[in-house]
Amino acid sequence: MARVNSAVAILGIFVADLAFWASRMPGIGETIAGSGFKMGPGGKGSNQAVAAARAGAKVTFISSIGKDEFGESAMATWRQDGIVARVTRRGDAPTGAAFIYVNDKTGDNAIIVVSGAAATIMPADVDAAADAIRAASVFVTQLEQPVAAARRGLEIAKSAGTLTIFNPAPAEPFDDGLYPLCDFVTPNETEAAFLTGLEVKSVDDARRAGDVFLAKGVGAALITLGETGALLHGKGISTLIPAFKAGPVVETTGAGDAFNGGFAAALARGASPQEAARFGCATAGLSVTKAGTAPSMPKLIDIEALLRRG
To answer: Which residue is catalytic, options 68, 125, 183, 257?
Structure first.
């Protein structure tokens, strides 16, 4: 049985989010007027770390950043939420950055990410933080840093009995040998479709995709389905966890990260996968009611209040 100590270790990247609001994306060679701009902390791994910390977990974040202003912003972000940073500072590579287009009417988004220093994370860097991974209840990683680093983190966690969550985002090809290292794989519909080769446009489609993940060796697939919720699909269980409507949708950027961070935090406290998935859905439901990525992550008290309201 996995240890329960509220500790979560997350391997991923930090980027400075440069968000632009407009009615549509410009075409090639076209300039349009936007309606807003904001710079803030982002990166899937860092967002998930903030979400988990605000949801009550004791979080260690493993990454690499540059010795620049964006890097200082990263350190300040983690300090603010009590996150222990196990990061290397590089003078020969910049801290990552992301361009985010946000539709100012629907909140939908499109993103370009440059990982910067985090693109250099190697298995040896993960080994240097192995103690934090082994001591945690839950380990989380994604695909914004090199796949080899993600695999090493999963290997360390799996061998230590730490629960593993693999968020295969952004989706890209990788060796199927990663799947048996995953207690949970958490793609969205687009990522699940890419990785399984199946169309994922309904709950039944998600179940079929989930079967593919199970056949590849994962413990359970947790496929997020936007406003429909999330499908928890494992051995002996296949249940849809409904999404939470916490208010008008302002921006969907970071909702998946909120879900993963909330899910990890709840698992680390000893919640069942189904309870933790519901907690993750509530976390995501609150996050979309505010602008930004890390700044939109809700506090534990607000998540618990939403769960009580049902």
So the answer is: 257
